[in-house]
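Propose amino acids for all 374 sites.
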């Protein structure tokens, strides 16, 4: 099994917190799209005849593409790759792009899942983050998506912003429950280097993000999601009625994936590679017949760390018999290192599985890094 990710590196405007590769200039959009089509053909050997179970259009803002262009990508993949006829095909979209006309056009493409960047239903939060949409568009697009048959969708929310108190965070979540959103991804606001938000905080133009504020709102999130019947199947991801993201689940399970586009990453269990994150140079290289990427071949320690990092983020956790495949020495090392987290109530064991407890989930980054091999 495998997955394909297509990176669309364009946005209308830059969100203050974002550090993904994108450009707010659309001058080279057509050339970039042509380069993506060419890379899809050039990279066929990476997956060989593996069955492709999911396609994910990410970014950037993929909803800036016309629906017919998205349909063409799906057709090329169907022709060139071994695509499962029931594959999950997800398009990331911004609420302001999801007009009725656009949704109608999308409904006539193979796209069968939307990932909508809501981030908040509160106007003040959206302005703080410099989002391109407003609160009304956030609500309207979800209702319109259902009208055009997109019952399988996910939304993103961000918590921990200085503009959002706990009561407003609860109101955000209540809106999710009232709308019966099937899948939700929630992320703490993170201040990444070289972003506008980092600059504003450094120059005291806006309040700093407080860890305690984020931790408290994460606890509220987990409690309210549980009470509303949502399953926390990964630290930041919740769903009802088994509406898991097949594509993201593939990442966490260590399944092979191919990344297409500038800045996109690929992984096959033995190596990890990433394309040049520079639109003009990427386009030029593809036109000259070369995919511009760097590659890292994974050592045993790298493969072990990759597994620990992804597995412990999920509800299933680490499978001890999988660790034995790395050798009993590594299995025993893991269990010895994990003892301190068992004693703190941050990890637990259920037969063959070792997973984080709810109290350990917010500290996952620190716990996982402590379990890494050098």
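Proposal:
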């Amino acid at each position: 099994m495998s997955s394909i990710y297509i990176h669309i590196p364009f946005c209308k405007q830059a969100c203050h917190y974002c550090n993904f590769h994108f450009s707010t200039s659309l001058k080279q959009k057509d050339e970039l799209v042509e380069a993506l089509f060419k890379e899809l053909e050039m990279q066929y050997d990476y997956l060989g005849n593996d069955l492709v179970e999911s396609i994910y259009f990410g970014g950037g803002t993929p909803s800036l593409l016309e629906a017919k262009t998205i349909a063409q990508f799906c057709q090329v993949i169907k022709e060139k790759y071994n695509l499962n006829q029931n594959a999950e095909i997800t398009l990331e979209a911004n609420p302001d792009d999801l007009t009725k006309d656009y949704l109608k056009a999308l409904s006539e493409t193979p796209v069968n899942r939307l990932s909508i960047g809501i981030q908040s239903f509160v106007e003040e939060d959206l302005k703080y983050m410099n989002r391109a949409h407003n609160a009304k568009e956030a609500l309207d697009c979800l209702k319109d998506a259902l009208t055009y048959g997109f019952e399988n969708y996910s939304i993103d929310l961000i918590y921990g912003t200085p503009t959002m108190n706990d009561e407003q965070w609860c109101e955000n979540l209540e809106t999710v429950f009232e709308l019966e959103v099937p899948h939700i991804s929630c992320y703490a606001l993170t201040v990444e280097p070289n972003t506008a938000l980092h600059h504003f905080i450094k120059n005291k133009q806006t309040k700093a993000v407080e860890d305690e504020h984020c931790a408290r709102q994460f606890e509220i999130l987990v409690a309210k999601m549980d009470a509303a019947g949502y399953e926390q199947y990964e630290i930041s991801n919740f769903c009802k009625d088994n509406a898991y993201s097949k594509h993201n689940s593939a990442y966490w399970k260590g399944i092979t994936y191919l990344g297409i586009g500038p800045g996109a990453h690929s992984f096959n269990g033995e190596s990890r590679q990433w394309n040049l994150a520079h639109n003009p140079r990427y386009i030029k290289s593809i036109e000259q017949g070369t995919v511009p990427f760097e590659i890292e071949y994974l050592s045993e320690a790298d493969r072990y760390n990759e597994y620990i990092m992804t597995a412990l983020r999920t509800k299933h956790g680490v499978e001890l018999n999988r660790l034995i495949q790395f050798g009993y020495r590594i299995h025993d090392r893991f269990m010895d290192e994990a003892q301190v987290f068992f004693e703190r109530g941050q990890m637990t064991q259920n037969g063959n599985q070792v997973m984080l407890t709810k109290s350990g989930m917010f500290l996952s980054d620190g716990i996982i890094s402590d379990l890494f091999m050098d």
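The chain has a mean pLDDT of 95. The radius of gyration is 21 Å.
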